User: Fold this.
Amino acid sequence: MLQVKHITKYYEQVKAVDDLSFEVQDGEIFGLLGVNGAGKTTTFRMIIGLLEPTKGEVLLDGRPIDYQVTDYIGFLTEERSLLTKLTVKEQILYYGILKGMKEKDILEKLDMWLERFGITEYKTRKIKELSKGNQQKIQFISAVIHEPKLLILDEPFTGLDPLNVELFMNVIREFKEKGSSIIFSSHRMEHVEMFCEKLVILVKGKSVLKGELKQIKKEYRKKNIIVDGDIAVQDIKKIDGVLSVENQNGIWVIKIDDEKRVDDVFQIVKKGKHITKFEVEDPSLNEIFLSKVGESYENEV
Assistant:
């Protein structure tokens, strides 16, 4: 289990991370979200031991992060961190040995992963000769070759087509099933919704929303009403609490500020024609993210 306890990080007078706390259980995928400059990278660096927190502490299975503990951590960075003049084999041997593995074990696991990702023919090719998508596969292999206890994935699907995204998703779920603690970060909220049971959203280094995703969506007061049929759009727009009424590919999406507005909308909708659907949905994580981040910036004004 990873425990992040009240960590704060200053760069001179700039507070990059502000009293951040969260836990990631064994076999759990946790979302760490935020816009660029929110403090995610600084947080990752404190977790893996590259930076010391100004205040607070980070523990993995109750132990502070040091060089012995980092052997149990895998980190896929958003930026390419490959040595492009090396071959795939040389690159993975380098990372595996840094993690304390034996050469024989590294090569056995490398062959397994290359076959899993369908790129066995690239074993002796230089990194720079590979496509961006295949470089991402090699970077992923370098992060998991030692079967980490804690796996940090920062924009893991960069450069991948939909088929390979699905392949990566399956592998990540397998690590979850094996009991790894996983931190997942992405600007693609639909990917976060697929994976993460819990999450935290950072704005300027401070948590503005934290908890279980299902509970966050349930407690979020704004809802979406989905309607299929002919409705009196202008009458619905006049209802107090209706934020917008939009037609998306023939389906009406009515956004309301509170679930208590549902009955008022229904009273108008039921007078329409050819109504075949009336459903109340929780907003997407993307909507919640945009709302919480926007509120935080507005409160600073």
